Amino acid sequence: MNNEEYFEAKPKDNLKIANENLKSRLLVGTGKFANNQVMNKAIASSESQVVTMALRRIDFDSEQENVLNFIPKGCILLPNTSGARTADEAVRIAKIARAAGCGNWIKIEVIKDNKYLLPDNYETIKATEILAKDGFVVLPYMSPDLMVAKQLVEVGAAAVMPLGAPIGSNQGLQTKEMIRILINEISLPIIVDAGIGKPSQAAEAMELGAAAVLVNTAIATAKNPVLMAEAFRDAVKAGRTAYLAGPGATKDYADASSPLTGFLNNQSE
Amino acid sequence: MDFYRMSQQYDELNIERYLNSIDDQDVINAINKQHLNELDYLALLSPSADKYLEQMAKRARELTIQHFGRTIGLYTPLYLADYCVNQCAYCSFNSQQQFKRNKLTLQDLEKEAGAISKTGLKHILVLTGESRSKTPVSYIKECIVLLKKYFSSISIEIYPLDVEEYKELVDVGVDGLTIYQEVYNEEIYRQVHLKGPKKDYHYRLNAAERGCVAGMRSVNIGTLLGLGDFYSEAFYTGLHANYLQTKYIDVEVGVSLPRLRPFKGAFQPRTTVSDQQLVQMMLALRLYLPRVGINISTRETAKLRDAILPLGVTKMSAGVSTKVGGHSGNEEASNQFDISDERSVEEMMEMIYQNNYQPVLKDWHLFR
Ligand code: SF4
């Protein structure tokens, strides 16, 4: 891409998931905030257009405590199946979410392991298949594995969401190599979900070529969540721009300005 | 291998001697470790860790916010009946105590459920004394079916059951089990459980595990602080929680830290667990098991509960009555024990918000 093409392309650099064109490549979560007002402000300052929340947490009976009432208008709701231990349970939760008016996007989260909260890839594939057939826009959260990602594509996922590190660990891109492989090999958007603890790590994921990142703990538990949301917004933009700009390759050796082997080429002169 | 056999490995360990051998460096190492083993946990419980409570508290707060966020789950107990065939030396429902016993009819229960659900709570803990004749599993099941209309999560704190019986309750909508061993020391266990089926130490000890096998989503254990030696009771509680969490990875394990409270009767705790020890145990548990739920009930004073809110607690009870029918105004019944923190759900929520935390009234829903 030359400069002109780039400046042409940039304004249209939207993230397309299903039929939605998203300007923002930052997805945010609603858990762990100190209160719903702060959450509302943080989401607003993140400029995120897709907001995930656990269906099990939604209290439809309570105006004040119902998280849905605090999600800025215009955001796409991404209910998640947190609490599901099997594909079956995830499917049930997804259907209830749709029936309750949360739209037809769903983030599959099937977790059997309470110690590390790692996803069960096998059950995730099963749930994705059933729900995609049923007309859902399915975004599965998974442990990065190429074969699993390929199967998720095959069964109808709308994007693939590998973890960067265990949920809430704030450890950043511990699975970087695996994610790089997914980005190279999978045609769907790769959204890094879980583990991102700092804006610099979000930028790193974006520079790597991730289509988007999902952040919750790092924003919700920051001293100033609203400010942190803003920092993530900017970091994601910066990382994306850097990716589009095509960073120079990292090299193990410095390029000497007068090449050490230059004399070989000069010999014939 | 069940927990009993696993814990026998530590019979050889002379806890007192071990605790005395722990020095400052052991404590500092444990605080800074990523993954603590059971001996690190013991180091954090030791008298040497006294001086490091502040460091432990900082780490505990970080870990808790990291894993649970700035949230505190709220629930309230609901007593079905106070009939009991056991003689636990420390409890007012003890069969030797003379008072007019009560049991909720389904109509009473509906009133009680209505009163609680008006407060906004979605999680309840159903309690009853041990009486298979007055409150058989079939009665408890009927109650659960009714309560499902009002609440999104129902836990039980009732007499220990077989796996099949737990399964029956899970099938009608119970998702959590609370069962305290009361005291891990077998000798003391025998001394304070004078009569009744509860005398069977092993049946009770394995109940938490039977609950896991039966498909409970959350299992909450605890020792009644004050009955046995603080250090070893705290140690075995942690071991038990870790055992369950490691073996049943799909179960959310929680630990309660109840201290003995005044009740009808003359029993005096063997040891008094100080506020400082209670806090130390909570912090040590958090560092040892970062993802375990920690529950502090209204046995503790409002002042203490407010102070420890940011340190590791994940769940608190609110708007509590420890008598049968207590939520819908039955003044006749007896308390199981006296509570300290009498605040309503609304007041608790206010306090939690003021501390910059979010009270969570609903965090689970059984989607069937
Ligand atoms: S503690 Fe439980 S089993 Fe023991 S007397 Fe009281 S109600 Fe009965």
TrEMBL record, chain A:
Keyword Disulfide bond: no
Main subcellular localisation: cytoplasm
GO cellular component annotations of the record: cytoplasm
Keywords associated with the record: Cytoplasm, Schiff base, Thiamine biosynthesis, Transferase
Active site: K107 (schiff-base intermediate with dxp)
Its EC number(s): 2.8.1.10
Enzyme class, broadest EC rank: transferase
Pathway assignment: Cofactor biosynthesis; thiamine diphosphate biosynthesis
Binding site for 1-deoxy-D-xylulose 5-phosphate: G168, A194, G195, N216, T217
InterPro entries xrefs: Aldolase_TIM, Thiazole_synthase_ThiG, ThiG
GO molecular function, one term: thiazole synthase activity
SUPFAM superfamilies referenced in this protein's UniProt entry, alphabetically: ThiG-like (SSF110399)
Enzymatic reactions: [ThiS sulfur-carrier protein]-C-terminal-Gly-aminoethanethioate + 2-iminoacetate + 1-deoxy-D-xylulose 5-phosphate = [ThiS sulfur-carrier protein]-C-terminal Gly-Gly + 2-[(2R,5Z)-2-carboxy-4-methylthiazol-5(2H)-ylidene]ethyl phosphate + 2 H2O + H(+)
Domain of life (superkingdom): Bacteria
Domain (Thiazole synthase ThiG) ranges: 16-259
Function: Catalyzes the rearrangement of 1-deoxy-D-xylulose 5-phosphate (DXP) to produce the thiazole phosphate moiety of thiamine. Sulfur is provided by the thiocarboxylate moiety of the carrier protein ThiS. In vitro, sulfur can be provided by H(2)S.
Quaternary organization: Homotetramer. Forms heterodimers with either ThiH or ThiS.
Assigned protein family: Belongs to the ThiG family.
PANTHER family: THIAZOLE SYNTHASE
This protein's name: Thiazole synthase
Organism of provenance: Desulfuribacillus alkaliarsenatis
UniProtKB/TrEMBL annotation, chain B:
Database matches in InterPro entries: Aldolase_TIM (IPR013785), BATS_dom (IPR010722), rSAM (IPR007197), rSAM_sf (IPR058240), ThiH (IPR012726), ThiH/NoCL/HydG-like (IPR034428)
Keyword Metal-binding on entry: yes
UniProt entry tagged with the keyword Transmembrane: no
Pfam entry (one): Radical_SAM
Protein origin, superkingdom: Bacteria
UniProt cross-references to SMART domains, sorted A to Z: BATS (SM00876)
UniProt keywords, alphabetically: 4Fe-4S, Iron, Iron-sulfur, Metal-binding, S-adenosyl-L-methionine
Cofactor entry: [4Fe-4S] cluster
Matches recorded under Gene3D superfamilies: Aldolase class I
GO MF, one example: catalytic activity
One of the GO BP terms on file: thiamine biosynthetic process
Domain annotation Biotin and thiamin synthesis-associated: ranges: 256-359
PANTHER family to which the protein is assigned, alphabetical: 2-IMINOACETATE SYNTHASE
Protein name: Thiamine biosynthesis protein ThiH
